[in-house]
Design a protein that fits this description.
13 helices; Rossmann fold; 6-phosphogluconate dehydrogenase C-terminal fold
């Protein structure tokens, strides 16, 4: 397999994330094309000057001819069906995805015979909006993009997906699928549930409460504006990890409620939360860097996974 920093990109599904991949790849000078079922999105993407196919097999044929990286950007419930059709088509292109859950997607790829070609991916980017209209070529600038280092991922496959992410402006975080799922349950899936709970609680206060709501309510409920089907799919495909994170959050809130009732103060949750936020900001400002030499040696997957656990990122790569 030839490793190229400018491989063409074939995106299956042109919602906000898939559309942003196409737009960002084109802006970076890569050949970029896609497939989408929606006639409305098809016409909109074509009108914007992008090459779009209305038949999946046609897109896959073009991907094979151009040696493209195939990016599956469909809703979670459709990924298995897309994998089945990619496997039936054949070919040898590297296949990745942008889903928010990795273990179940990896299992689906293996089930459909794509294990040798599949490299899980997850850009930690997006807004509460959705669809092609919300696609933004700058969406991935500075974002963390998880790239799988599970057993079966080849060096060449990892390199192709990592260079795609880097070329779109992201930094790469290597991780194992199961560890990724436990992490995002805490920092992505749980926040959607907490935002929904906060939005419901605020609305229960009536128009006076909503009329007084300002920055803290706006920021705390932002992701409650996300497409409910997407949030439900995230939680449904990562149930055990979400429940674990939710239980921890509920324990902390219950402890704060108990302390508040007994003493009139919420207890340690406020100060420990302040410290945790400060730790997040420190890491965001000064993340350790991974050298490309991390791919050398037979234990490269384990070493990259450990670097990811420490918060380290890959920032550049010259093949």
């Amino acid at each position: 397999m030839t490793i190229s920093a400018a491989s063409p990109v074939c995106v299956i599904g042109l919602g906000q994330i898939g559309g942003s991949v196409v737009k960002a790849a084109a802006a970076a000078g890569r050949e970029a094309f896609g497939y989408v079922r929606s006639a409305r999105t098809f016409e909109a993407a074509r009108a914007a000057g992008f090459t779009v196919f209305g038949e999946l097999e046609s897109a896959l044929k073009q991907a094979e001819l151009s040696r493209a990286v195939i990016v599956v950007a469909t809703p979670m419930q459709a990924i298995g069906g897309v994998f089945a059709r990619i496997a039936a088509f054949g070919g040898s292109c590297v296949v990745t995805d942008v889903g928010s859950v990795k273990a179940s997607v990896l299992a689906s790829a293996e089930e459909h015979g794509l294990a040798g070609r599949f490299v899980g991916g997850h850009p930690m980017a997006g807004t509460a909006n959705s669809g092609w209209e919300a696609a933004d070529p700058t969406l991935f600038q500075g974002a963390a993009w998880v790239v799988s280092v599970d057993e079966g991922v080849s060096k060449e496959g990892f390199a192709q997906v990592a260079m795609l992410a880097l070329g779109l402006g992201a930094v790469v975080v290597p991780a194992l699928a199961a560890e990724h799922d436990r992490a995002v349950a805490r920092i992505s899936h749980l926040p959607h549930l907490l935002a929904a709970a906060l939005a419901n609680t605020g609305a229960a206060g009536g128009e006076l409460a909503l009329g007084l709501a300002a920055g803290s309510f706006r920021d705390g409920t932002r992701v409650a504006g996300s497409d409910p089907e997407l949030v439900e799919a995230m939680c449904a495909n990562n149930t055990a990890a979400v429940i674990e994170a939710l239980d921890e959050a509920l324990d902390r809130l219950h402890a704060a409620r108990t302390k508040l009732g007994l003493t009139g103060e919420p207890g340690p949750i406020v100060r420990s939360g302040h410290a945790a936020r400060a730790a997040y900001e420190r890491l965001a400002q000064d993340r350790p860097e991974i050298a490309v030499a991390g791919l050398e040696g037979p234990d490269w997957r384990e070493r990259l996974a450990e670097a990811g656990r420490r918060g380290a990122v890959l920032r550049s790569w010259t093949p």
